[in-house]
Structure formats: C-alpha cells, structure tokens
Amino acid sequence: NPDKKVNTLSFALMREAQTMWEADIQSNSDIKSIVFTSAKESGFIAGADIFDISSVQDKSELVPVIEEALNFFLHMKAKDVPMVAAIHGPALGGGLEWALWCDYRICTDSKATKLGLPEVKLGLLPGFGGTQNLPALVGIQGAMDMMLTGKNILPAKAKKMGLVDLVVAPQSLESVAIETAEGLANGTVKKSKAKTKSLINRLIEDTPPGQNLMWSKVKETVDKNTDGNYPAPYEIIDCVKYGLAHPGMEKFKHEREGFAKLAATKESEALIGLFDGTTQMKKLSSGAEPIKVKKVAVMGAGLMGAGIAQVTAEKGYDVLLKDRDDAAVGRGISYMTDNWEKKCKRKRMTNYELNTNSSRVTPLSDHTESWKRHFAGADLVIEAVFEDLALKRKIIQQVEEVTPDHCVFATNTSAIPIADIAAPGEEVKRSENVVGMHYFSPVPQMPLLEIIPHAGTSDEALATAFAVGNKQGKTCVVVKDVPGFYVNRCLGPILSEVTALVKEGVPLDRLDKAMKKFGMPVGPITLIDNVGVDVASKVSNYLASADLGVRMGGGDLSLLSNMVEKGWLGKKSNQGFFTYSGKKGKPSIGPEVTAYLKDFTDGNTSDLSETDIQNRIVARLVNEAAMCLQDEIIENPVCGDIGLVFGIGFAPFRGGVFRYLDSVGTSSFVDMMNGYAETKGEQFEPVQLLKDYAASGKKFHDN
C-alpha cells in the first residue's frame, strides 16, 4: 500500500490484489510459481485494517466480506502453482494468515521480523482461516499458545516450531524466495509440511483422552487469566475444536461467523478503542520540533534510574548513568546487566545486542574526575533521585553549570510540583528547559510515561521529552502540573475508599477478589503491598493535604501510616496486609494483622456485596478522572482512558474510565453516585462534568 507507512489488509487492498491476480496471473500459463513480498522496509503486512472493521456498523455484514477474502485465497490455491511468502518485518494478523495459505514461508533474521496472530488483544479472532491453518501447521498446542496470548514469534522460534521453513539475511530474502519458488515448481524443493509431532504431542493432540485433558487445561488457563471477562479466547477455542470435528469448508464459515459475533461485542469495541487511542497519542498536539538528542544523562542509579537508563540504551542513545559513589552506580549497572542477561536466556536479545547496549552506558560518580566533561555533551538529563525539593534544585544547579544551553532537564518526581522544582532562582537559571517525566515502576515493564510541563516549559523542551519517551517505547500522556499529576491523583481517592471499606469490616480477600472480578490485574490490597505500604501511605496523605478536598475524604488513612510505623511495608519487607514467605509461599493473613484489623475496625464485620465493593471503588476513581478532564489536567478522554489502563491496569476490556462511562451510561452512574453520597458522604458527590453529561446524554467517545 503506497499511501501508508505500513501495509494493512484493508478491504481496498484485498480488492486490488484480486484485480491484479485476475489480470496478470490467473490465465497466464507461463507462471509456474509465485512469491508474495513487500516493497516496504517497514514490513510484510501488519494485520487487517482495524478501522475498516470499526466502520461497519452492522457487524453481521462482515461475514460476506470475510467470505469474499477467503474465497480469494482459495481461488489462488486452486491455480495449483507453488506460492511462497517472503517475509521481512511484521507479518501479523491477516498478514500471517496470508502467509499461512502459501506453500512455503521464508522470513529474515532481522530484529524487526515478527510473526503472530494478535487479534485476541483486540477482542477478535483470526478470521481469514487462521484458526484452522495454524493448528494444522504447528500443532494445536503451539497454535493455541499463539492465538490465546497474541504473542509475537521471532524468526528462530518460528523456524523451530515449523511456522516458517527458512530464515535468511534480509539482503538474501528476494533472491532466495525466487530460487525456492523455482525449486518448488521444478520439484527440486519440497513443499512445506506440518512439523512432525513428538510421541507425547501425538498422544495429547491426536487421541480423545489426550485432547480432553488438553482442552481442560486450556480452558483452565483462560479462566485464570481472564476471569471470564474476555469472550475472544473462548470463541477461538470453539473455532479450533469445531474445525477438528468438521474438516470440510464449514469450519471457515464457523470461523467468520465467530469473528463477526466478537466484532459486535462491547469488549472488542473497547479494546479497539484503546488501540486507536494509543496510535493517536504517538503525536504531540503542539507540533513543536524537538531538539536532536544523542546523549542522555540519568542522575540516580537506583531501580528507577537504572530502569530509565536501560530502556534508553536499548533504543540507541548514549547514556551517562551517575550516582553519588561507585557502589551505587555499580548496583545500577548490575540491575541492567541482569535484565539483559535474562532477555538473552529467553532469546529476546542476542549477546551482540547485550554487549552493544552495555557499551552505550558510561557509569559515573561524584568521584569520577571527568564526569563534568561527559555531561558537556548531554542533550537531555533525567533525574531520578530522592523526593526532596532542595536536592532536586541543587542537581539542576550542578547540571546547568556543565551542560550546553539547549540541554533539557527532566525530573522523574512522582509528587513534587514541577513549578517548584523549576522556579527561577539561584539554583535554576534555565527554567524553560525543565519538564516532568514521570515513569512508573518497574520502568522496563510499565508502558506509561506522564510528561508534565510547568507554565514556563518551552514547547521545544516538551517536544523533546515526548520524542524521547516515544522512542523509549512508552505511551506518553501530557498532563497538567498539579499534585499527583493524573494517575496518582486518581489513585488517591481509591486508597481512601479502600481504608473506608476495611474500616467497615470488609474482609481483605473479598476486596481483592471483587476488583479482580471487575477486571483489575490485582486487587487493591495486593496493589498496596506490591507498591509498598509506605509509598501508598505517603501518596494518600500527600493528596489528602493537597487540593482534592472532600474527594479524599471518607476513609481513615491511619490504617496505612500505622502499618508503616510497625515496619509492615508490604511485599518488599515480607509483611504488609499479607505475610510473604518464600517465592512459592502463598500470601496469607497472619495473626498480627488479624489482631490489628480487629482493633482498627472496632470488631466490625461486613458482608458487603461484590457489586457494592466494585461500585464504591470505581466511583471514586471515575469521579476523580472526570474532575481531571473538567480541570483540563488531561487533554481529552482518550488520554484519560490510556493513562489509567496503562498506569494502574484499569480493566482493558472496559476500554478505560470514559469508555466505561459511555458503556454503562453516565446518567445511571451519576444516579448510583448520588445514592452513595446520601448514605456514605459527600466524597461521592459527582463532579459537575459528570452531572452535565448525565443531563445531556452526551458521550465521551463518538464511537
């Protein structure tokens, strides 16, 4: 597709392919074999065009469209000449399905090459024969793992599992593909065959008892991973099982009908909305040009600083990692090296890449005589030191003395206002170059980055932070400089409500179970233990004394501060709400915590329903997110949705807080909140924006 950066399998592209086939190939008896490849360096085919699917209002109309595409694949097969897929870059979704219809698949060993069927991540299933052709090629277990997780398969793994027949250097792809196509035509190269199964896999996949056990395990895994909230995995299982029982053409009809059924679900609409939102957020609305960044300095080599340095080095930047002494820097370097070695063991990184990444990082400390000379070449400095205003301003002073005038200074603070850090004065001379870059821990895993300009931040500094964050692989959300920024600001009222529920005597495991059932990755009690009871206490108390007013009310934050005094800091100290004993030991509630909670609740117990628990916690979260939109802390509902899905794991299948409101209806949600406000207090009073949307019937999203 010459009009797009990447090839997608749009309706228009499929029709163009059909026209070309009929005009140039179908009736040409001189053609003995065919190679499909891409003229784009960006890749083969990145999947079906999601926006084509979204544009169809009545999803049942997708059935004949998919049937037309499938008939085209069958029509090509019917010419009975060998077809070779020559793949460089992504072959995903419909792109891989196209390749699966071919007789032979060759891919490059490029880092950019990846194969997969990620439709499940959009609440869909492979609709161009993928649920039938993939199991036949690589075996049921391998196919189910690919389709149910949507994971990408790299070239070496693809060859090993039989997904491709040959892996070559990018420079050789076209010539080898043509040579192979000729060989297939004259019989010197044999057509691809399904990978021979081991005895154990034959017993599992090809015998009734083995299949029963296999499907039982597959369903058990899906139940555990989805809590039944995502219909797509179950539909994929159904399609594969149906195909095994119905080997004729009926299996493809069943597949496309399943696709159309999933496309009509609210879960798919929500997940596609997130995908679209993530794409939208790769561009900064201001349009300002960033400065060119080659060298990034990271101040502070703790877990945050080392994590930032790791993702920065992986993307090709030269990195200076500095801390107060050699021992601290050494721990940061060890953290990165350990992570890279784990990637190597999992075949996600080569030793060459590990060595290249390591060579990009220069460790420095206060004792390194040349550190100032190194910093003289820095284009961006990111500090990740303790949350201390005086310390951060002192670091800016040190940095400004040795860096060029264009150098941008980014602070990774999670709480201190950027305006306070950047306030012009004796320590800060280039205030316009200061911006917030709030990463989430652990940095290599968490996809979100909040970028926070203060009133005086230049457009160039903001654009630079945004560009670097994008290149680091983060989804960047620009938010206003207010206490807690966006994600932590929304987290505060949740923490308050959790303490209120605990005070009422709601059991800890019931709180966790209810929110897991709602779709959160972990329950609120486990979340507090994971991030640290001390961190949760500090954030909640800070926000309680900030500008949120009654919206932080209703709880008893001493629940957390008292635990901190006892040294119960969560998982990191092996004791929080739960007691953690060993790697495999299941967290449990010990007698000391039980006694503490009995005292805290005055012996109260509550059998509050799962729905009430969910509604109360979600109401506090949604209300604060709406307030952030009302106060223009976030730019639009898309930012709000992405921020909370990627920041705290708000149920992805619900599409984010604002898409969730559109789904349940803002009017009914406001009515629910008003009911809680009458019985539980003014912390549940809906903000004005929610009242306005409820009264007008307006939605936050158009689609």
Q: Mean pLDDT, as a whole number?
A: 95
Helix content: 40-55%
| Major sheet strand order | 9-8-7-10-11-12-13-14
Described by the principal axes of the CA atoms, the overall outline is: globular
Task: Provide a descriptive summary of the structure in words.
With 703 residues, the protein is of the alpha/beta class. It folds into three domains: 11-195 and 230-264, 2-enoyl-CoA Hydratase, Chain A, domain 1 (Alpha-Beta Complex); 295-478, NAD(P)-binding Rossmann-like Domain (Rossmann fold), CATH 3.40.50.720; 486-566 and 593-633 and 665-696, N-(1-d-carboxylethyl)-l-norvaline Dehydrogenase, domain 2. 52% of the residues lie in helices and 9% in strands. The chain contains 31 helices and 14 strands. It has an eight-stranded mixed β-sheet with strand order 9-8-7-10-11-12-13-14, sandwiched between helices. Strands 1-2-4-6 form a four-stranded parallel β-sheet, sandwiched between helices. α14 (303-314) links the parallel β7 (295-299) and β8 (318-323). α9 crosses α10, α21 (487-504) packs across α24 and α22 packs across α27. The longest helix has 21 residues, at 610-630. It is globular. The two termini are 26 Å apart.
Task: Compile the SSE list and pairings.
Elements: H1 11-24, E1 34-36, H2 50-55, H3 62-78, E2 83-87, E3 90-92, H4 94-100, E4 104-108, E5 114-116, H5 130-138, H6 140-149, H7 155-161, E6 166-168, H8 173-186, H9 199-205, H10 208-226, H11 231-245, H12 250-263, H13 266-280, E7 295-299, H14 303-314, E8 318-323, H15 326-345, H16 351-360, E9 361-365, H17 371-375, E10 380-383, H18 389-402, E11 408-411, H19 418-422, E12 434-439, E13 448-453, H20 459-471, E14 475-478, H21 487-504, H22 508-518, H23 524-531, H24 533-544, H25 558-565, H26 591-600, H27 610-630, H28 637-648, H29 657-664, H30 666-680, H31 688-696
Parallel strand pairs: 1-2, 2-4, 3-5, 4-6, 7-8, 7-10, 8-9, 10-11, 11-12, 13-14
Antiparallel strand pairs: 12-13
Helix pairs in contact: 1-3, 3-12, 4-5, 5-6, 6-11, 9-10, 11-12, 14-15, 21-24, 21-27, 22-27, 23-24, 24-25, 30-31
InterPro entries: 3-OHacyl-CoA_DH_CS, 3-OHacyl-CoA_DH_NAD-bd, 3HC_DH_C, 6-PGluconate_DH-like_C_sf, ClpP/crotonase-like_dom_sf, Enoyl-CoA_hyd/isom_CS, Enoyl-CoA_hydra/iso, FA_oxidation_alpha_subunit
Organism: Skeletonema marinoi
EC number: 4.2.1.17
